[in-house]
Amino acid sequence: MSRALTVLYRGPLSSCNYGCEYCPFAKRHETNEQHEVDAKALTRFGDWCLQRTSAPLRVFFTPWGEALTQVRYHELMTKLSHAPHVTRVAVQTNLSARLDWLKETDRSKLGLWATYHPDWTTLDRFVGQCERLLELGIRFSVGVVGFPAHRPHIEAIRKALPASTYVWINAVKKLAPTYTQDDLRFFESVDPLFRFNLTPHPSRGQACQAGESVISVDGDGTARRCHFIATPLGNLYDADFEAALRPRACSNDTCGCHIGYVHLDYLELRKVFGAGLLERIPTDLSATRISHPG
Ligand code: SF4
Ligand code: SF4
After folding, report:
1. What residues line ligand 1, using a CB cutoff of 6 Å?
2. Which numbered atom of ligand 2 lies nearest the CA of 211?
3. Domain coordinates of the chain in residue numbers?
4. Strand partners, 171
């Protein structure tokens, strides 16, 4: 019997209009043929989502590159948002592309995880895009990569957005040992959940929803527990695939990425994020200030 399922989709698309120096997809262009391969995989995935009506479905697009510069992602997200059994459609984006397509979606189901890259856009432009989302009534979080050199940009974006917009900071794990106490205080003053991201959470042997009610799927339909454990569970497009989903303990030592550790049962972050789990919006930020384990 089917049960509610969350699918993180990451197809072949691996191009991006931005050029972040730490990213392998920076300024990478794809040929028409490569876009066609992505489009075909996306159509197949979309058809599966639309036909899998047996239980609620939440879909989170976590592309290698930037998906919202491609109209095919707008079209599929719009279609999915109107499907009665699809309860959430979320995407990670740099928020550079046009946003008018969102008017056609069921906005109550949309969620955007928007990252502000101050080296590749201006504060005014990024804030303008956020204002447009607010006008449209689209739920979104805004995040910045936690380089100490980004502190002035982080301060500026926090000031420019309403207090009700959650601004998260992703710890740069390589730099974590060099963060000063002042950096940590600053990051935490902006993002009360920063230490959850800074901490590599012990996960081996721990119960995690990944592989039970959450899966990660690639363009061929290969389904894995999450983006961090390579062993496949099976193929999404096999008729009996969901029989493979069951409770499992994590086989990695630690889990350090939001899109993974939010599914670790013992962290109880589902209570913190509630319906905003995928797009990273806590239900009540003030209630989270005392509960981090770090
Ligand atoms: S916006 Fe994202 S995908 Fe694009 S270069 Fe920067 S980190 Fe990579
Ligand atoms: S704890 Fe992280 S690495 Fe382990 S199964 Fe869950 S999401 Fe995957």
Report:
1. 16, 18-20, 23, 25-26, 65-66, 94, 117
2. 5
3. 5-288
4. 146
Which ligand minimizes its atom distance to the CA of 226?
A: 2
pLDDT tens digits for range 211-237 = 999 999 999 999 999 999 999 999 999
36: nearest Cα among 44, 47, 28, 24:
44
pTM of the model: 0.96
| Contact present, 59 and 81 (Cβ < 8 Å) | no
Residue-wise pLDDT for 262-286, tens only, equals: 999 999 999 999 999 999 999 987 6
Q: Which CATH class is domain 5-288?
A: alpha beta
* pLDDT (0 to 100) of residue 1: 63
Mutate which of 15, 17, 18 to test ligand 1's pocket (most atoms within 8 Å of Cβ)?
18
Compute the distance from residue 292 Cα to the ligand 2 centre, in Å.
18
From the list 71, 15, 16, the residue with the least C-alpha distance to 42 is: 71
For ligand 1, atom 5, the nearest C-alpha belongs to 26
From the CA of 257, give the closest atom in ligand 2. 2
